[in-house]
Each structure stands twice: as C-alpha cells, then as structure tokens.
C-alpha cells in the first residue's frame, strides 16, 4: 500500500515528508504513524521541528509492518525496531526516516530527495543514532558514557574509563564494532548532525560524550598511559580508531571530493552508486556529481571521475584506478576510473602512492585540460591526456619485504649499468638508492642523511653480491670502477666511503642498517622495481611488464605506468621515478622531452 500513501503526499522540489509516530503505552503496541509534507523557507528553516533517524537497513529479507495513514507499509525489521523503541508514551515523535519518508521505488523522487539529505540531518533538532538491540553489556556501556558526560574535567573522564569494573569499557567496545559504523550513508548523517544521541535498545547516551572519550584516550595514549598495562582500555582505544572518520573534525566540511572519497573508501553501501551519492553534504562533491538513480553504476562512476578531473585539473583519481579494477558485471570500467565500490582495503590500500601525493609535485602544478573538441560524452570510456613519455620498461624485478627481499632486489640490478648518469643528471647509484628508500624529502637539510643512506646502499649492494663487485688491491671496494664517471660526481661520497671502509667499517655497517630500515619503513605493499630504456630507475606497487610505458601526465603529482591497449593506454598504477618526483624535468626544460597525447581507455 506504499503507492497509496505516497500519492496522498506528493512532493515539490523544496519539500520533504516527516513521520509522526503516535504514542503508545508500551513497545508491544502496533506502530501507528502519519506522514506530513514539510518544506524549508528561503532562510533554510524547516516548517516543522523534527528529529532524524540514522540507522542501517539490516537484512532486507526481514520485514515488519508500520501503519501509516491507515495503510500497512512494509519496512525492514531494523527500521521498525528503531521506531518502536524511540516513540513516546504520551506525545507523538516527529521524525525523518528515509525508509518511509522517501518513496524508494520512485527513482525520480529518490534522485531529488537524496541530495536533500545532508540538509535534513543538519537541520534536525537531534539525530537519533540507532545501533540495534541491546547486548549483554549495553546497560553498563551507556552507564559509563553517561558518567563521563557528567564529568567536569578530562581527568575525571579518564578515571571513569580506567577504573571501570562493571563491563562498561567492553560494552562500548562492542557497540563501536557493530555493522552500523561500516555503512557509508551513516557517515554523512553523523558528521553533519548539530546534536546526536546514541541509542542501543532501551539505553542511550550523548554522541558528543563518545567523541569526548575518544579525545581523552588519544591524549592518554600519547602519554603512554594506554597500552599493555590497560588491555581493555587499549581495545576501546583501537575500536575508536576504527571509526575515526566519524569522530574527528565533526561539523566541518571534508573539503574536496577526492579527500571524502578516500576517507570513506572502506565503507559499504547496498547500492554501489551510494558510495558517491552518500557524500553529498559532507564536501564539494555536488559540484561534480549528479544524483540520478536511472544511470548505471558504471556511468555514474565514469561521469563523476571525468567531471572531477575536468573541473579540478587534477588526475589524482588515477592512483585509485588502474590494474586492480575488477571486471564488473554491470559494465567494465575504463582503467582511469576507480571502482569506488572496492571494500578490500579501499582506495587507500589500492595504491600506496595515494597517501604520498602531497609530498611530490612532478609536473610543477601543470593541470590536466579536457579536450572539448573530441565531443566525448560524460560517460565515454576514453580520456585524452597530455604529458611526457619517460620511457618504456626494459627490466622489472620484485622488491619484497625483509632483508632477503631487499638483497634480491639489489642483486637483480646489472651493476655495470650503475656506471652511468641518470637522465635527470644525478648518478645512477644515487638514483638507485633514492628508489630503494622511496625518498620523499627534497630538502637541503637532509644532505648528510642522504649521504649516509647512499653509503649504506653501496655497502648493502656489496653484501648482496657477496663480494663479487670490483675490488682494489687492498681488498676494499673499487668505487671508481663501480661508479665509472659518476665517481667524480660523488667524489665526497667515494672518499668518505673508502676512509670508513679502511678505518671504521662498523660505521658503514650502521649506515647499511639505516638504509635497510628506511627501505622497510616505506616499503608498503610488495613492489616492483624497474629500469627504462632511457635510463630511469623507478618502482611501482603493482605488477608491471616489459614494454609498459612510464609517463608523466599533466595533472598528476607523480608519474604513472601505462600499458598499451588497442588504440590507447590502460592505467596500471602510479610510480616513483628517481629524478623527476619534485619537478626536476619541468625545471630543466629538456628539449628531448616533447608534450605528447595519451589516450587512456
């Protein structure tokens, strides 16, 4: 009977429905409610005071009935339980809940109402966060949170938590581990709320106190008060860490769409399109995204990616696309469009370089420009980009974790090729070292550290080749032969290395250990090191092949690996290429490199 209910309450563009849940003397009474149509005035004020419900739909096969305007309306069991628990005994509760207030079967209405949701939660008198039915420790948990709400100082909050003997700490930890915190829609609902209360069964506590406890635990952890000696508190601290997106910088816009997409990449949605639609209201994504449930998942993702790149001039999204995009039954995505539905680690885990973008500026801010002459539609699968071809992959070797992985990687390089200059002008041995430790600091103050790492790399290379490198008559490493002409460029390094090798070999061993630690610290996922036919040395966190292309595309802060496909190129991954990461190629204006077009497919 939903159609009858919605026909009686049609909506104009600035209108929304609210549910008036009638009071009942006990939770056992049937749920009875009515719908009314409301609106916002020109100043954004709602025509009625209302609450908003934040919940998860739960198992879609578990249904229940609510009587709305004298008609039976079937809803999910989760929604029915929430409304039953929240209704008053004497007065009606006026509340907005998407499962009833939006006609979910009307795709046009849904497309209009969804962009409204950020405002609906922001303007609600209070947002009711419904976690589901109470567990064995829920009463103790809410009791602990409410005691912390009454605390006057941070120290009182800490003492309430650390001295808890009633199971409250374990209860809060359990609540923070519920499915609710994995859903992308509730992320928006909680973040924009001006005031919120957490409900679990018949128990409740202010959401702001949960946030306060999280802040206190953060500071206590920094003081080393949270750890092995307080295992239950440490588990609570870790539980808050898993929902950090909900608790930090509340009430503030997330800024750019790219930030919001990365922040929520681990969250889930029943409809893959909602991985994007649910972010409207939290950031500027509405400038690049049209909510339209008549579009396919593939077309929504492609249109958003193209529009974001076009309007910002940035190709950051490429780093979340590429090789790992799985085939989709709903239509294969172009290699330059991320699969925003990814759940296994999300976009942040998809390419380690996403988290490193801010350190690099390979193209010196040169932006991507959409070629409007192509007349490509918003969902077309081709993206025309421009940039420099750095070269084709000539050799690729694995770089794995640990001493053995590092040494195998070093041993795989042809030492003879180290005796030459990198296209960037630096010594090849220096480029090799930078690649191995993923050097992201382009500052003069680190000169001594870099010298030590380079000597450590040379020493590690010697160890990995088991003494097979050229040696002088006195048995020391023959750096002049190893480095060739570069030995003059690195004369200070050569002199220092030879001095230490002859007088203080233990210092070289310290440098080797420092190099090994730097390699391991920023190693990330199993990597592949590569050389190009043009002499560049780099690494990628994705499997790469001989003849893959390494390019520097305008709009991307780091180079990318591309693979030839049909008439264009498929994106494989971002990559690190020594000698270009900080804009060196743009500064040099080398006539050898001419701007080329790259058609991404």
Automatic annotation (TrEMBL):
This is Heterokaryon incompatibility protein 6, OR allele. It comes from Colletotrichum sidae. It holds the Pfam family HET. It comes from the Eukaryota. Residues 50-189 form the Heterokaryon incompatibility domain. InterPro entries: HET (IPR010730), HetReg/Transcr_Mod (IPR052895). PANTHER family: ANKYRIN REPEAT DOMAIN-CONTAINING PROTEIN 39 HOMOLOG-RELATED, HETEROKARYON INCOMPATIBILITY DOMAIN-CONTAINING PROTEIN.
């Amino acid at each position: 009977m939903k159609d009858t209910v919605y026909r009686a309450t049609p909506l104009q563009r600035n209108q929304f429905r609210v549910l008036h849940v009638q009071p009942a003397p006990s939770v056992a009474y049937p749920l009875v409610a009515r719908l009314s149509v409301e609106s916002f005035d020109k100043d954004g004020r709602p025509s009625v005071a209302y609450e908003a419900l934040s919940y998860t739909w739960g198992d879609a096969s578990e249904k229940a009935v609510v009587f709305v305007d004298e008609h039976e309306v079937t809803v999910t069991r989760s929604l029915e339980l929430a409304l039953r628990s929240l209704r008053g005994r004497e007065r009606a509760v006026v509340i907005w809940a998407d499962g009833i207030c939006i006609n979910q079967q009307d795709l046009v209405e849904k497309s209009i109402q969804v962009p409204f949701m950020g405002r609906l939660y922001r303007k609600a008198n209070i947002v009711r966060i419904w976690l589901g039915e109470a567990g064995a420790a829920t009463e103790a948990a809410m009791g602990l949170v409410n005691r912390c709400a009454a605390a006057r100082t941070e120290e009182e909050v800490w003492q309430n938590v650390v001295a808890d003997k009633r199971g409250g700490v374990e209860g809060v930890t359990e609540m923070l581990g519920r499915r609710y915190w994995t859903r992308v829609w509730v992320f928006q609902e909680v973040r924009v709320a001006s005031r919120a209360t957490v409900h679990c069964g018949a128990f409740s506590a202010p959401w702001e106190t949960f946030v306060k406890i999280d802040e206190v635990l953060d500071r206590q952890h920094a003081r080393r008060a949270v750890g092995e000696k307080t295992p239950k508190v440490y588990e609570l601290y870790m539980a808050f860490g898993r929902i950090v997106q909900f608790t930090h910088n509340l009430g503030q816009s997330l800024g750019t769409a790219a930030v919001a997409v990365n922040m929520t990449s681990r969250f889930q949605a029943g409809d893959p399109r909602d991985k994007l639609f649910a972010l409207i209201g939290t950031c500027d994504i509405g400038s690049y995204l049209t909510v339209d449930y008549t579009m396919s998942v593939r077309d929504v993702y492609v249109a958003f990616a193209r529009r974001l790149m076009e309007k910002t001039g940035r190709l950051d999204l490429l780093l979340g696309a590429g090789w790992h995009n799985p085939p989709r039954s709903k239509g294969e995505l172009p290699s330059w469009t991320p699969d925003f539905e990814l759940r296994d680690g999300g976009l942040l885990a998809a390419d380690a370089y996403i988290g490193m973008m801010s350190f690099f500026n390979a193209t010196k801010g040169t932006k991507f420009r959409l070629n409007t002459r192509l007349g490509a539609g918003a969902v077309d699968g081709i993206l025309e980009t421009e940039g420099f071809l750095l070269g084709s992959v000539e050799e690729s070797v694995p770089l794995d974790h640990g001493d053995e992985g590092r040494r195998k990687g070093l041993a795989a390089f042809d030492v003879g090729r180290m005796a030459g200059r990198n296209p960037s002008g630096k010594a090849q041995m220096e480029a090799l070292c930078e690649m191995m430790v993923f050097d992201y600091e382009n500052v003069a103050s680190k000169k001594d550290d870099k010298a030590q790492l380079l000597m450590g790399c040379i020493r590690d290379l010697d160890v990995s080749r088991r003494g097979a490198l050229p040696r002088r008559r006195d048995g020391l490493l023959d750096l002049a032969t190893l480095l060739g002409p570069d030995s003059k460029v690195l004369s200070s390094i050569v002199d220092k290395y030879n001095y230490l090798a002859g007088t203080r070999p233990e210092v070289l061993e310290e440098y080797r250990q420092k190099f090994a630690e730097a390699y391991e610290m920023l190693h990330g996922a199993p990597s592949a090191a590569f050389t190009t036919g043009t002499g560049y040395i780099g690494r990628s966190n994705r499997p790469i092949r001989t003849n893959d292309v390494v390019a520097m595309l305008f709009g991307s802060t780091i180079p990318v690996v591309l693979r030839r496909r049909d008439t264009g190129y498929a994106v494989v991954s971002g990559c690190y290429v020594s000698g270009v990461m900080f804009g060196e190629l743009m500064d040099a204006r080398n006539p050898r490199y001419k701007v080329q077009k790259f058609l991404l497919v």
